[in-house]
Amino acid sequence: MVAEATGVQSTVQEKPKTYTANLWPQNWNIHPTEWDILIVSTLLKVLLFPAYHSTDFEVHRNWLAITHSLPISQWYYDTTSEWTLDYPPFFAFFEKLLSIPASFIDPKIVDLNNLNYDSWSVVAYQRSTVIITELLLGAVALKFVRGAVDPATQHIISASLFLHPGFLIIDHIHFQYNGFLFGILLWSILMARNGNKLASGILFAVLLNFKHIYMYIAPAYFIYLLRSFCLSPSGQLQIKNFLSLANAVIGVFIASLGPFLLMGQIPQLLSRLFPFTRGLNHAYWAPNAWALVTALDRVLLKYIQRSSANIAINEEGIRSTSRGLVGDTVFAVIPNVKPIHTFTITIAFQSVILFKLWRNPTYKSFLTALTLCGYVSYLFGWHVHEKAVLLVLIPLSLLAAERQAYFRTFILASVAGIFSLFPLLFTPAESIIKVLYSFLWLTFVYTALSKRVYEFPKSLSYVILDMVEKIYLTGFVFLQLFVMLFPILSARSKHAVEEIASTDDSMAFLPLMVTSVYCAVGIVWGFIRLMFVYLNEETTYQGQLSTIQ
Amino acid sequence: MADFADASTPSPSSFHKRKIHIHTSQANQDINNGEAPFTPEILAPTPQRHLLESHVRQSWLRTPPLSPVSSRAISPTSTRAISRSPQQPKSFSSFLDHEPTEHGTAHGIPRMHSTESLNSRPKTVENSTARRFVRWTHRQGQRNWSLLFVCLASHLLKYCIGLGSYSGHGTPPMYGDYEAQRHWMELTIHLPTRQWYTYDLQYWGLDYPPLTAYHSWLCGLIGSLINPEWFALKSSRGIETESSKVFMRSTVVISDALVYIPAVFMFSRTWLGTRSKRTQNLAFIAMLFNPALLLIDFGHFQYNSVMLGFTILSVSLFAMSQDLLGAIAFVLSLGFKQMALYYAPAIGSYLLAKCLLLGPTIGGRLFIRLAITTILAFTVLFLPFFPPFAPLFSTTQCDHTDSSDCTITYLTVLDPISRIFPFARGLFEDKVANFWCASNVLIKWRVWAAPNLLIKASGGLTLLGFLPGVLSMMSAGWRLRTWQSNSSGESTTSTPIPILSLLPYALLNSSLSFFLFSFQVHEKTILLPLMPLMLLSSGAVPESTTFAWGALVTNVAVFSMWPLLKRDGLGLQYFILLGAWNRAIGYNPFKEPVLSLKSFVQLLSISVHIAAAVLHILELLFDPPSRYPDLFTVLNVLISTPVFFCTWLWSIKCCIEVSWALGGLTGSGTSSGARPSSRAASVVSAGDEGVVLPNLREKLDGNHKGDRARTVSLGFSHSKQRTRRTSSSVSFSRASGVRAMSTEPS
Prior knowledge:
Chain A: InterPro entries: Glyco_trans_ALG6/ALG8. The structure holds two protein chains of two kinds. By secondary structure, chain A is an all-alpha fold.
């Protein structure tokens, strides 16, 4: 924890010396309100124990069994369950660690052949591990407050991060360990803020070896650390810094991949981590640019079919539309998109962002670039999952109170992004909970932050923009009503006309499609906003974070 | 959240400043914003939360009769005209207020001038999550919207509790309370009204009053619009699909939101009208998140909050002097669940005492109006069982004779009534923490006595149990009567009626006596005594005895339902809600070091909590011996019953004290100052109940006739003109305040 100690010392606010290097919460001066948030949220999460859990629950249980009952050489080869291990080695080690208490609590949890085991013991155990490991996120969020430029504002942001509906939906109901992983990411960002860039780089390397999806934002890290840590402001290579960072990162990778390297399993491991056999869109389209393109394709197809215009239609694409939920997306009218196209677009956008970061490697610029890198990958990536939106929302939250423009982007992207997670939970009871919780969270964040960043609109265009965005946000209420009422109404109409049941499947897909497209509009608009602010105004548009070098 | 870190402990100086600010600018504020509650202009330099003073002011500002010496009765219209004005009910919260008596002085004024009490205050203000939340929202300028936020949060919590199991989940063939409620929805939408109370009684026949039936009918109607399979006749029995469960849960949440939440809001705005907005909001939150109610309604599955909500509504309406509407609300409560009868002695005696107090002319008129309203309301409730909607008489096959053509003819309306009051069941069913079940450990009542005798005994004991509350209410009403005294008749015009302050205690007393002594009590019934206790303690400061009783009894009530909740599979929810609740209101029985325990209730609390914790640990570690399979349940009963018994005794004590303080000091308006002050001395020294003090002071002030006459006229003119207060009135109030003080013994 040397890294952390030096980090705290170098913060803007002076702290007593005794404060450093204390990991025991007693020395953290945790305010009663912070305890309140922790206790209330934890109790709420415990109440969610009996809630619905997705197949990811069984995935993680199976990984507990794999890592517990098989030797390390078998981990990436085992196919007893269809949910094979496809996370990097650190996560496997993490599961190995979790499997030790599990085997004491209930040996059936770690039984490899005990598929789809979901007794009370395993539910309680796995759900508690999520809550406990998420404490890392809480601790980092707290540390963000200590030594912040504006602790009062950072308090709200930290609370909003810890209470983020994304974590509640994905981790505590759907089941994953994002809270823990984002805790590491935020820790790494915190180190960058505190000026300890070496620790920041190491933590990010560790994070990459927990879950490789964080590669989305790796370019921003690479440029930032290279420019501001390995090079002096005048462009001189700082050999000592460079070597220490390089060695540390290589060390982390060796610790993770070393055993598999020795066993010669790297190709197998990589084939598990990067399955390139999937399609452009996930089953439910993640609300990104491709969702808009796909929707456009469907609309064009309908139009062409109606008007019988003389345009070549891909037959495969027509079948793709009628399949709805499953399988690849193949366009009927628009030329098909290949992985190489998505990569080209992603890299093109990212290089613009990274160029700007190279020119201005401050903390705030880094944070924005990080968010934008995640944003670009989310919008244009191949087979993006809707859960990846957290990669945008979480770093963006740190920028939320910067200025009005950031705040509005944050609100727009958060509302659209969180709403796009709703289809993950389709059971009725959890649906009510997700909507209520997200609404409460939004109310809390909005009322607490909006006044702090309020700026008087400078021109008529701002007023109009403001109106349009408000109308868009209001639309979510109606979208939610539509999504809720559609199944009931369609079921009733089905009762009335029993015969016309052939169109059911595509109709069942309709609420998902509408949700995806509507959210995509907001998320893409948020990206445009943030890009604009970053490229044009970032240096002149000063907020609280710009004081950090 | 603006200043998480620095907000918690404002420096003494800032605290002081704020208080001063209030005193100097309050008059202006009230004039400026019209919606602000009316605060009389004669102000003593005391902090806002100290209600003794505010009450004194109120008493001065009573609208005088047309002529001070007139013996003419006050016309009812004038009474009601005053009562309708929003500011009038304010004075009532003072009755509920319990001041901490740390420094041995219960006389408000000296305390507030001592700087040490100013310093010690902020430390205790923010000891709970709810307080911190309320404080934060107020700093954000979200006084009113925060309540909406809290309501939504409570809905979230209710649905989260609802994720768990419910009564009778997966236990065919009879299932449990959940299936009963669902079955009623099923039968009410499919059968004509006449058959509701006669259809297949073996399978959860309807045995709640008609309002429940109508409510079920409405819910069933909406439900079968969404999915008719949920409520298909016969075939839907025992349906346990995910969506039907969510629908059923939603009906409880929505009913709660429509009845209980508005009622609690109204209570916090009427009864706690003179308290600060923060206290009102805090009380609202405390009432909303009562763990016992949450667990039973949203976990176990019932609609108790509707019945309790109607009762709270009626109590709030009484505080607004809307007696007729209040009576209707109480009839609705009775019509929803016959269990509300537990409150009937208190409510009835209050209304009767009010009639008594007002005298034969006005009171008699009120009595007749109340009687007609109540009877009408009941008639409307039971209307479908009277002609022309149903034949007056029905016939049934008599089952005990051999001749098959024997029929019995009876009034149709007896169908519901005989279902509502089942005397055929035993003294008690499950283990419940009341007198009969607890003493059953020693005396096997059911072996020892005949059922008829037991019914009579339980009836008699219940009657004895609630008699103190009723009697104290009536005697207060009698002693405060105004129709004989030829003095100024001050009590008459004071609205609402002073005996209202007795009502929560009387409610507690009567419902507890029913719970402890009556026939056929369920463990869930503890919710009824809990409600008036919540009313009392929700606005109390954390150091007061009332707060301690409220928190203790809430915890014990939840604990007493543990066997039930465990059977329902709600163990997780039980622990979570208990923990969250105590954290939220800032209650920790072990906070005080054992040696410094000051009061009986603290001692009781600490021992009961330890016993409960030990019992939980034992239950976790060991299985009950096969000879006594109910061992833990019986131990649970034995731990809980003494607490309820002590609470019952405490409620009697409070009833008597408050009643004495109300009626004892007035006597006839012409009495000399000597007698009252000696009585006051005994009250002050005997009880730590701050509740007596406002009234006491009021009466004492009343004795200074000369002063009062002048003050009244001053106050009256001020209230009319709404001018800024003059320095003369301030000094005047101080003078009489000091004089009032001097009559109290040192």
